[in-house]
Amino acid sequence: MRPIFAGRKYIYVAEIDAIAVRAESEMAALGVEDMLFLVGNKGTSTYSIPPDLRIYSLNTTGVNMVKAAQRFEQAITDLPNEVEIQIDDWDRKRTARWITPAMLREFEIISGRKKYGRRKPSWVAFEDKTTIDSFWKSLGVNYPSSQVINLRDPNIKRVNNSLDKGEGTVWSADNRDGNHGGTIGVRRVTSEADFISVQKELKKMANKVRISSFTEGIPLSIHGINFEDKTIAFRPIELITLRYRDSCEFLWGGCSSTFDPPLKDREYMQELAYTTGRALNREVGYLGPFSIDGILSESGFVPTELNCRLSGGFSTLTNGLTNFPLAPLCWTVMENEKLDYQARKLGTALLDWADSNRFCGGRVITNKSFDTVNQLLLTRDGSEFREVRDKETPTATLTYGPSPMGGIVFFQSLIDEDQQNQPTAPEVVRAIRFADATIDTDFGPLECATPTHN
């Protein structure tokens, strides 16, 4: 990839500054001439940001992941005059391109510079949860029973009740106000009170919703990359999706890779990735990374959404692979650069790495603000975590610090014999209980799915 990137200037766009350290090292290894960073706000990382990095922070915030992302995206398309002047002075020939690992919204120009690795509108459209079921249907894939309906339709209560098989329903908002993720536009309805509150709340961000029968099981995702002549698929990744006991909302807890579904389910998910990749290429010419999210139920995996971008699970799949430029690789694929990718060998190598280098951990956003980055060393004491004492060896870490949403809490655990092949979500729930008691976060009682498959 060096011939593509070497000797060029790039504006790296990211919502938090913490990503700049790895990005600068990654791009320097590809021979990039110079980089300028546009970031939303301060983030949390154990890395120190070198003072010589050219970083401009737009100081954007939001009450949740989606609102923060939307405000950042608005800010970078209407940059302050002083930032525009600095960019023009840095790139006087105006030859720089801008790049980003992932954004919800898609646009081509920032400060007069074109994006490298741009997604076509037809690619972005697959992220709408109210239209994706027709795609699964066209592939002959089983998915949860559902119906799309306008939030103001007088028949919505009847539709909801007809889809409730005894454990409630799940409502997913359309993309009227743009793409959304991190469970922000998703709610579970189990009562009359839930129905009333969710209908009222989702009207603020959507015109329509997909109402699906609730499916019990482990939330999982399968990732792939579409090359021009081949699709590669990876291993299943756990989507840590936690449930509040006293709310219709879900809490997004990040991705983990300790859990191994039965072999038949793993193979089915990989085959679904191959089938989906070929269909995306055939229908809209899609090239690049994608992920299929869904539920591993007692009857197998059922998909619920499709993301045609470099979604968060890719960083879990490449955990520890510090010298591999995954994002630049995906940008070149999306731009259809004619390189010798050796997709088959690449897919095998990345799959082997992901299977051999698991990650046990999660992350949650909190409205409690932290000014600095702090880390606590933990160990298990029965069924709960506590801080280590004296010369005890830690088995987990809890790192917390600032984020554009207020604060963020990262949890990571060593993988012991009890944790091998098991879901990580229960460990994250345990870590959140510790955080509530120790650093005054206020998540409250949380639950998670338990394996139901055979």
CA distance, first residue to last residue: 44 Å
Radius of gyration: 22 Å
Could you say which structural class the secondary elements and strand pairing correspond to? alpha+beta
Mean pLDDT: 95
Main beta sheet, described?
Answer: 7 strands, antiparallel
Number of discrete helical segments: 13
Per the principal axes of the C-alpha atoms, what is the gross shape? globular
Low-confidence stretches: none
What percent of residues adopt helix (DSSP H or I)? 25-40%
Number of strands: 22
What percent of residues are in strands?
Answer: 25-35%
What are the main properties of this structure?
single chain; 454 residues; alpha+beta; Dna Ligase, domain 1; 7-stranded antiparallel beta sheet; 5-stranded antiparallel beta sheet; 13 helices; 28% helix; globular
Walk me through the structure.
With 454 residues, the chain is an alpha+beta fold. Among the domains are: 2-116; 145-214, Dna Ligase, domain 1; 361-447, no CATH class. Helix content is 28%, strand content 28%. It contains 13 helices and 22 strands. The longest helix is centred in the middle third of the chain and has 22 residues, at 263-284.
